């Protein structure tokens, strides 16, 4: 009987405040959708870093005959074979370097250059003798780039030590910035959702003050009186979380699988296992957040 009464009170409360309940559902759905998307974007950035940082190399470029006036290291002209051999031997002894160290000649560098720029006007501006020879070094820990740079950047015959991570780092910074922006918007939406929940509970408690007064007179406990209001907020939040899950799954299927994965095939996008790990957290927050907000709001607005 008590359960039936609580359920009937929940139905009455939801019908009386239908507009505000709908606003709560929408705001919770948007805020939790952004929350889930932020978690997935963080996983995507981590996945991309692991993939690309494993692919990139540290390049040690040697001076060629055109570099005599580019710096002290190249003052004596092109790097000698002995200088190259010495650097190769040191690289082979370093424990942080993956073997083998790959040598790239000027002709090979020019071939890669032509493959990259194809028939564009830029391709004709460079000749093979302008491109330096280099060692392509893969590190066991890509963050140890500074060790290679400090050891070889000042060596005679070395034009430059370049970390290819510098070419992909701006992309990761952009993605991290987008993630932070999504979290900020999610926080604002969450504040709006909490304010709507508190106002909805307040209006609902005020509209049913007569019923709650009668319940107090007949000896109903505070928890029993509060339960319909808390469950109303929890149901609205759970519905919002369910819509957020639909948005997350739809975004993964439509935006990632059917668009980005086909447009950008060099990126290893996160799988459904990452989505499945996020959805229960979204549902849990959608259930508990409105319930707790309603509980604390009732302590102020419902005199029990």
UniProtKB/TrEMBL annotation:
GO biological process: cell division
Recorded topology in the membrane: Multi-pass membrane protein
Coiled-coil residue windows: none
Transmembrane stretches, start-end: 21-41, 180-201, 222-255, 275-298
Main location: membrane
Cleavable signal peptide: none
Domain FtsX extracellular: 56-161
The keyword Transmembrane helix is annotated on this UniProt entry: yes
Domain of life: Bacteria
Cross-referenced InterPro entries: ABC3_permease_C (IPR003838), FtsX (IPR004513), FtsX_actino (IPR047929), FtsX_ECD (IPR040690)
Domain ABC3 transporter permease C-terminal residue range list: 184-300
GO CC entries: plasma membrane
One Pfam family hit: FtsX_ECD
Location in or out of the cell: Cell membrane
Gene3D superfamilies hit by this protein: 3.30.70.3040
Keywords: Cell cycle, Cell division, Cell membrane, Membrane, Transmembrane, Transmembrane helix
NCBIfam families xref list: FtsX_actino (NF038346)
Listed PANTHER family: CELL DIVISION PROTEIN FTSX (PTHR47755:SF1)
Family per similarity comment: Belongs to the ABC-4 integral membrane protein family. FtsX subfamily.
UniProt subunit comment: Forms a membrane-associated complex with FtsE.
Function according to Swiss-Prot or TrEMBL: Part of the ABC transporter FtsEX involved in cellular division.
Record's protein name: Cell division protein FtsX
């Amino acid at each position: 009987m008590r359960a039936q009464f609580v359920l009937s009170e929940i139905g009455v409360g939801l019908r009386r405040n239908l507009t505000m309940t709908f606003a709560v559902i929408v705001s919770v759905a948007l805020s939790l959708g952004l929350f889930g998307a932020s978690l997935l974007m963080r996983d995507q950035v981590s996945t991309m870093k692991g993939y690309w940082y494993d692919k990139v190399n540290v390049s040690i470029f040697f001076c060629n005959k055109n570099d005599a006036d580019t710096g002290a290291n190249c003052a004596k002209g092109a790097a000698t074979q002995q200088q190259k051999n010495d650097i190769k031997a040191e690289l082979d002894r370093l424990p942080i370097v993956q073997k083998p160290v790959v040598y790239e000649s000027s002709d090979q560098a020019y071939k890669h250059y032509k493959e990259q720029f194809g028939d564009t006007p830029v391709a004709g501006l460079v000749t093979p003798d302008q491109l330096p020879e280099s060692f392509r070094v893969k590190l066991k820990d890509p963050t140890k780039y500074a060790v290679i740079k400090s050891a070889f950047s000042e060596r005679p015959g070395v034009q430059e030590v370049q970390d290819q991570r510098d070419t992909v780092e701006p992309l990761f910074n952009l993605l991290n910035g987008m993630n932070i922006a999504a979290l900020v918007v999610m926080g604002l939406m969450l504040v709006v959702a909490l304010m709507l929940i508190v106002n909805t509970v307040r209006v609902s408690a005020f509209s049913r003050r007569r019923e709650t007064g009668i319940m107090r007179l007949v000896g109903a406990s505070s928890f029993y009186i509060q339960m319909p209001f808390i469950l109303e907020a929890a149901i609205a939040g759970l519905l919002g979380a369910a819509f957020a899950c639909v948005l997350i799954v739809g975004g993964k299927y439509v935006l990632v699988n059917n668009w980005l994965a086909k447009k950008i095939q060099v990126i290893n996008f996160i799988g459904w296992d990452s989505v499945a790990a996020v959805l229960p957290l979204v549902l849990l927050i959608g259930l508990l957040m409105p319930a707790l907000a309603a509980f604390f709001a009732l302590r102020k607005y419902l005199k029990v």
